[in-house]
Amino acid sequence: MNSKNLAGPGSVLFYTLCLLWLFLTVFLGAGCASGQKTDKHHVRKIILSNLHYRRPVQRGANFNAEHLEADFESKPRPDHKLDCEPLKSLFTGLDLEAVRECLKTVNDEGRAKKITYKLRREITPFLELEEKNKETPPCFVQILKVLPVPREIYFQASEAGSLSCFNARIPLVKEDVLGLSELFSSTQLNLTFPKFPLPEGDEETILLLGTWVMAPFFKGGPFVESKLVPQSLCSTCFEGKGLFKETDVLPPFWP
């Protein structure tokens, strides 16, 4: 092949068309797809205290797969509660008292600082501390270097006109158009200090950490893009426990 032809007008036109196709596929194509989805809700306030999550260690089923295809269903299949766990289980093994001490230490310094995390969308996603940030406190590196993130969440909210059950999920890298979402995504968690008030006790600490790991679900704006799901599905996920009714005294909605 003559190397001079690579710089010819036809070659330039070809690469221009490729770039145009890439732009249309990633940006406009995504916009058209989202416009066709009528079952999506932009939920702005959720009940965090009874939220349940899924974070299976194997890749889930492919929603676009045809019947009898290899990835038509999850393998192994979910358990009797759909592999759901309550929010507190996400932080099992984390020294919550040490977390509170760390937050107090950083807060007592009194200097304004920003601590940042980047979302890693693995099969079991997590937020990874950006250690190169000069403002990152040593105690964050020691005990809060990685924060596990749910792959999928089930929660209650009143966005549909009454207290209803919703589902939201974080797409894995493989599921994104051309695998380029990581390139264009700026999903991250920004924590600013000093911060008041600080959590007191394990329950408040879990709720605070819960707000941190929910950040990736708010990637499109001040809302969680969610699906309205049958109450029976939430009941299965929650094992019939902890679901609120309209007549109950509800906890504060977040955020």
Note down, in words, how this protein is organized.
Residues 1-7 and 11-37 have low confidence and may be disordered. It is built from six helices and ten strands; from the N terminus they run H-E-E-E-H-E-E-H-E-E-E-H-E-H-E-H. The protein has a six-stranded antiparallel β-sheet, covered by helices on one side. Strands 6-5-4-9 form a four-stranded antiparallel β-sheet. It has helices at residues 9-36, 96-108, 138-143, 181-184, 201-213, 231-237; strands at 40-43, 52-54, 84-86, 113-120, 126-129, 146-148, 152-157, 164-169, 188-193, 224-229. It is α+β, with helices and mostly antiparallel strands and 255 residues long. The protein has one domain (39-237). Helix 2 crosses helix 5. It starts with 8 loop residues before the first helix and ends in an 18-residue tail after the last helix. Helices cover 28% and strands 19% of the residues.
Quick synopsis:
With 255 residues, the chain is an alpha+beta fold. 28% of the residues lie in helices and 19% in strands.
Could you name the key traits of this structure?
six-stranded antiparallel sheet, four-stranded antiparallel sheet, 10 strands, single chain, 6 helices, globular, disordered N terminus, alpha+beta, 19% strand, 255 residues
Q: Helix amount, in percent?
A: 25-40%
With strands numbered from the N-terminus, the spatial order across the biggest sheet is: 1-10-8-7-2-3
Order of SSEs, N→C? HEEEHEEHEEEHEHEH
**What is the general shape?**
globular
For the biggest sheet, the summary is: 6 strands, antiparallel
Radius of gyration: 22 Å
As for the number of domains, it is 1
- Write down how many β-strands occur, each being a DSSP E stretch of 2 or more residues: 10
Briefly note the structural class of the backbone: alpha+beta
Low-pLDDT stretches? 1-7, 11-37
Question: Total number of helical segments?
Answer: 6
* Spatial gap, N to C terminus: 61 Å
Task: Report the sheet-strand fraction.
Answer: 15-25%
Calculate the mean pLDDT score and round it: 80
